[in-house]
Amino acid sequence: SYQVPEIAILSIAVMLSMLTGGIDLSIVSISNAAALVAAYVMRSKSDTTGTESLMWILIACVLGIIVGLIAGGINSILIAKLDVTPILATLATMTLFNGIAIGMTDGVSVSGLPEQFMRVGNGTFFGIPTPFVLMVIIAGAVGLWINKTTLGLKIFLVGTNRKAAQYSVMGDRKVIAWVYLASGFLSALAGLIIASRTSAASPDFGSSYILLAIVIVVLGGVNPMGGFGTVTGVILATVVLQMVSSGFNALRFSQFLYLAAQGGVLIFVMILNVVLENRRVNKSISKSLRS
Questions:
Q1: Residue 185: is it exposed, middle or buried by C-beta count within 10 angstroms (0-12/13-18/19+)?
Q2: Structure letter (DSSP) for residue 112
Q3: How far is CA 204 from each of CA 28, 29, 35, 247, 259, rounded to the nearest angstrom?
Q4: 40, 185, 186, 259: which sits with the fewest CB atoms below 10 Å from its CB?
Q5: pLDDT per residue as tens digits for the range 152-167
Q6: How far, CA to CA in Å, does 111 sit from each of 114, 203, 263?
Q7: Global confidence as pTM
């Protein structure tokens, strides 16, 4: 259950890119890179105590978030500025960030993080696990951003009709750039939560999270073609899939079978989306012919 917040935050990052008709495959590699940088800083200052130790933990977290923003910025330049197809751009950056992370660590995880930092991932806030509180705050902030701001409205418009957005004066490239920056930021936050929960940062942690995040986003009602989706749907889909995962564990089914189930759910939901969309189009055509 402690995995729900980190998976939900990564799924929200994917949701943002999918709302514009794109996708971000680099979320897990960004979260690992951010966690590794933060972990290196914290471990190098492990001999500090009290206020000084807390200050270095904050500096490490800020540096981790900066790494996420830089990575998101690289995606933004490739997709918004150079018009590289999102799936190819983020596949390339995923490989790049993974390669850098493994090269930095020789594939070895960085462990032995400060106890104060571990309290974030394993502690509670008024009896509620801290990661869940952070997830609710982040989900609420993203929900307000996409539903109550001008930029949020533009994100939906770009996803609904990119061509119309290009011909308008709304600046579709700027909107897409902001989306991938936000995705990098959220990925870095998820990476810090994971590092705090596991007391380690690894260059290859959560390799299956990217497929899981895509399944959650599509299951949560986000249109893969862009233009529609809700944060609430994504959070609910995360909880449902985590319950299914717990059920598989309780019944002692293989984790590989759960991976196959994820793929099956994704195929089923996509077919259902196509069928419902075709039905909606046919209804509107027949209605217009009648009138």
A1: buried
A2: -
A3: 9, 8, 11, 26, 18
A4: 259
A5: 888 998 988 777 776 7
A6: 9, 12, 33
A7: 0.90
